[in-house]
TrEMBL record:
Pfam hit, one: KfrA_N
InterPro entries, per database record: KfrA_DNA-bd_N (IPR021104)
Protein name: Chromosome segregation ATPase
Annotated spans, Disordered: 47-68, 94-285, 323-350
Comp. bias regions, Basic and acidic residues: 47-60, 109-120, 145-180, 198-209, 217-245, 254-285
KfrA N-terminal DNA-binding domain ranges (all copies): 8-118
Organism for this UniProt entry: Halomonas organivorans
């Protein structure tokens, strides 16, 4: 319920003043115009004014007044309607702008909240990764410390081993020098032996050269003999080559004759194959006819055997009938001759 301090008429007058000034009515502006009143009361009266305006939007001015006054009233009513519509459009635009601003503020606040949550999640993940890396680095540091201790122990062992190796190296160097001295002595002895062998080889070479000269003379003589024998062999080979050429010519002629004969035989063979194909076809036809004849003969033989069986059955049947007829005739004859045969005997007895 509205308070008694601010009435509906006061709010309506303030709204008219604002609309006359070209401003859209709002709770804040109405309160500033009135200079008093609570926001709740002014808001209730403003809703009531809007409700009445919506109900009376299309109600025309009252009739029954003079025409000039009626026209003036209608004109004023039209102007008031247009002003009210413009004020309403302006008010709605401002309300929409405020709603958009509020929505943007809410969206921005939501984005800031999401960003804060994402930053918090990122910081939490970063802290987790930092803790994990710290743990890993601590373990790595412990492992490196252990490796350092083991490396120091290994270094001490290597220093001891190096001392032993240096002592062994000194011993080996002395041994190497002794072996080098022995090797040099052996080389000198070997060189002297090689000099002696070289002198012996030179002597053998001179003797071999003398023998080689003798062998060269012998080889020269043998070559002359071989050249003569070679010339003789070449002459014989030329004669044999001439004979071979003659024989080759004869063989070529014989080969040509043989080729002609082979072609004739090939033609004859093709003719024979053609004849054989014809004979095979004729034989196939004859075999087909023979098969047909054999089939017909088998069918005829089967019919003859069937007829023979039927004839035999009929003959047996006729024979049985004849035997039965003969038996009946004999029985009838016996029956017919029985009384005649008994009569004379009876008469003789009498």
């Amino acid at each position: 319920m509205a308070r008694s301090g601010v009435r509906f008429e006061d709010v309506q007058r303030a709204i008219d003043e604002l609309m006359a000034a070209g401003q859209a009515p709002s709770v804040q502006r109405i309160r500033e115009t009135l200079g008093t009143g609570s926001f709740t009361t002014i808001s209730e009266h403003l809703r009531e004014w809007r409700k009445r305006r919506e109900e009376n939007r299309d109600v025309p001015p009252p009739r029954g007044m003079p025409a000039p006054l009626q026209e003036l009233a209608e004109s004023l009513w039209q102007q008031a309607q247009e002003a009210a519509n413009e004020a309403l459009v302006h008010y709605r635009r401002e309300a929409d702008d405020k709603v958009d601003e509020a929505q943007e503020s809410v969206t921005a606040a939501e984005r800031r909240a999401e960003d804060a949550e994402q930053r918090e999640a990122a910081l939490s993940a970063h802290l987790t990764r930092t803790d994990e890396r710290l743990t890993e680095q601590t373990a790595e540091l412990a492992r490196l410390q252990a490796d350092h201790d083991s490396l120091q122990a290994a270094e001490a062992r290597q220093r001891d081993a190096r001392g032993r190796l240096e002592a062994r190296l000194d011993e080996l160097q002395g041994e190497l020098e002794r072996q080098a001295q022995a090797h040099r002595q052996a080389l000198e002895d070997q060189e002297a032996a090689q000099q002696r062998r070289l002198a012996q080889e030179e002597q053998r070479h001179e003797a071999a050269e003398a023998r080689l000269m003798g062998l060269v003379d012998e080889a020269r003589q043998e070559r002359q003999s071989a050249e003569k024998a070679h010339a003789t062999r070449i002459e014989r080979l030329e004669k044999r080559l001439e004979a071979a050429r003659s024989e080759q010519q004869s063989l070529r002629e014989a080969l040509q004759e043989e080729e002609k004969r082979r072609r004739s035989e090939e033609q004859a063979r093709r003719d024979v194959e053609t004849s054989r194909d014809s004979l095979d076809q004729e034989r196939a036809r004859l075999e087909a006819r023979l098969a047909d004849s054999q089939a017909a003969l088998a069918a005829r033989q089967a019919r003859v055997e069937g007829l023979e069986k039927q004839l035999e059955a009929r003959l047996w049947s006729s024979l049985e009938m004849m035997q039965e007829s003969q038996a009946r005739l004999e029985a009838a004859a016996e029956n017919a001759s029985g009384p005649d045969d008994a009569g004379p005997e009876q008469r003789e007895d009498e």
